[in-house]
Write a structure and sequence with these properties.
Blueprint: H1 2-24, E1 49-51, E2 68-71, E3 77-84, E4 89-91, E5 93-98, E6 103-108, E7 111-116, E8 126-130, E9 134-141, E10 148-157, E11 168-178, H2 194-200, H3 211-220, E12 246-249, E13 266-269
Parallel strand pairs: 1-2, 12-13
Antiparallel strand pairs: 2-3, 3-4, 3-5, 5-6, 6-7, 8-9, 9-10, 10-11
Amino acid sequence: MKETSIGLNDMMKEAAVHYVLEKLGIEPLFEGSMCDRKRKPYIPSVQGWHNECKFGVFMLPDMENLISCHISESCTWIQCCADIPFFGLTLEPFIILDPCEDVIYYGINTMNRSLSLFDYEWGKKIQLSFNDIINIQFSVRKPPAQNIFIFDMAVVACLIDDQKCEPDIKILESTQIPQIGCDGPTLNSKNFSLNNWMQQIGSKVSNTLNASQVRLLLHQLGLDNHMSSPGCKRTDVKYVPAVKGWKSEYIDSSIQIQTFKDEVKTVYKFQENIS
């Protein structure tokens, strides 16, 4: 009788969980197999991390009692396993940044997405939500002239109510992940063609480059480290008022200066002719 009672309780609990998931409209998210924090790839671990990246990973938080995570040998493939208390369910969020294919893969359990780096603005927060109940959020920053990525990532599950969410975990917070190989395609500036380049990235030649495409182009041409930030403005007081494209102080009228079109403005100081 005791064994029968235990089995009946388990069946009732499973039915109750199924009912809640169905009512919340999130049942498809849990149709796959569950992850297990006590099995590979999450073990062996130190402070909740099984880190197989052979290079330095900085700012990894202590996750031992909250969630178990794995960093692959590629360093930019991160997946985690978290338990959902009282429901006997698990969440398995992941993010894969592939610098060779210029794409980010991300998702949670059975919900997967991809994002081209051509369309991603470094540092922008991306959120993947399942009925506003299960959420994964991440952002990636790419410091110029450094072979690292800076990751932020969080996962939240609010199955009971939006005031009590478990798990609610910051998995990565300004975590520095090394970039191994594939520093992005480089371009030969000598034979460079903007028309050909735009066709290669799938953009029409007649289109204006968006901000992310401009950053990518400057990076591939090796010019991103030479650009000033913030950039100059032709309307700044430094450049106006101007005559023939020049703002000049103490100019000698005998000096001949070149006339510039509207695209260029230059500021020069000439020595006053005292003689």
